[in-house]
Design a protein that fits this description.
The structure holds two protein chains of two kinds. Chain A is mainly alpha-helical. Chain A has five helices and two strands; from the N terminus they run βαααααβ. The longest helix of chain B is centred in the last third of the chain and has 30 residues, at about 150-180. The radius of gyration of chain B is 19 Å and the shape is globular. Classes of the chains: A mainly alpha, B mainly alpha. The interface between A and B is medium-sized, with 18 and 15 residues.
Chain lengths: ~70, ~220
């Protein structure tokens, strides 16, 4: 799923390691999320959004539209 | 070698070529040491199954050793393990140490079983103790790794487990089917053990690769 984690992380001036430390996950997890290789769990997505002071849909972009 | 010289080296050399060379040298040295320790004639009687099992056991042990050494010395490990820097190894010390030990023990276990009497030089009781002990302790360590993993590694573990099941069903199932119909010999117990090891390693590489974790960093 397309996301803006890297954008918000860099805006804070944090390295992947720093963000990983703040979220209690490994750097590889942050790297995998940023490179779109892994969709985080709902709790982790919520924590990321809270850390960046944005909403989850601002952080993770889903282009799905419900059928009319 | 100075720090500048190390950093000017292409990443694929540091992260791919050097680990492969280290693994080759360690594997060769371990094999040579073993051959000098045991009676060479005793190894000549090994079946193809036992030989393949021994090679796979050494492969596991070498990978486990490289991880263990790299984690014990993050400064050194950062030069040949696929991490950003030594701090990443320090952050992952618990998981990597347990993983390395688990692989090392599992490899030694398979090696002991491959070299067991009557074809090999290791007495059966010793092979059973090392094989069974290594397998049990290695798996207990794997459980500890699982419990210490973050959500990405949990996902990778689960994916590798599911893939292992499918691959085992495919390979062992097909082999059993052919044996049942008389087209080939049934798999020997040691072949099955070796297949478990190979399939788990293969599935792990696939699962890890799908998450982009094999990309050289």
């Amino acid at each position: 799923m397309e996301n803006r984690v890297k954008h918000y992380r860099e805006a804070q001036g944090w390295s992947q390691g720093e963000l990983a430390r703040r979220l209690g996950v490994s750097r590889q997890t942050i790297n995998a999320v940023e490179t779109d290789k892994y969709d985080p769990s709902l709790p982790l997505a919520l924590r990321m959004a809270r850390l960046f002071a944005v909403t989850v849909p601002e952080l993770f972009i889903d282009h799905w539209e419900p059928e009319a | 070698m100075t720090k500048n010289e190390a950093s000017s080296m292409p990443r694929w050399v540091r992260k791919l070529l050097i680990p492969a060379l280290i693994g080759g040298v360690i594997g060769y040295a371990a094999s040579a040491a073993m051959l000098s320790y045991v009676d060479r004639a005793a190894l000549d009687g090994l079946s193809v199954s036992a030989f393949i099992a021994a090679v796979v056991g050494v492969l596991y042990a070498v990978i486990g050793l490289i991880i263990t050494v790299g984690t014990a010395s993050p400064w050194l490990g950062a030069r040949f393990l696929n991490v950003e820097d030594a701090d990443e190894l320090r952050e992952q010390k618990k998981v990597l140490t347990l993983s390395g030990a688990s692989m090392l023990l599992s490899g030694v276990a398979l090696l002991a079983l491959a070299l067991a009497a009557p074809d090999g030089p290791v007495p059966q009781a010793v092979a059973l103790a090392v094989g069974g002990g290594g397998l049990v302790v290695g798996n207990v360590l794997s459980v500890l790794v699982y419990r210490s993993s973050d959500e990405l590694m949990l996902a990778v573990n689960l994916e590798a487990g599911a893939l292992s099941y499918v691959l085992l069903l495919l390979v062992v199932g097909l082999w059993a089917m052919l044996a049942h119909l008389g087209y080939t010999a049934a798999p020997a117990p040691l072949d099955l053990l070796t297949l478990f090891y190979v399939v788990v390693l293969l599935a792990s590489f696939i699962a890890v690769g799908r998450r982009g974790m094999l990309t050289i960093r």
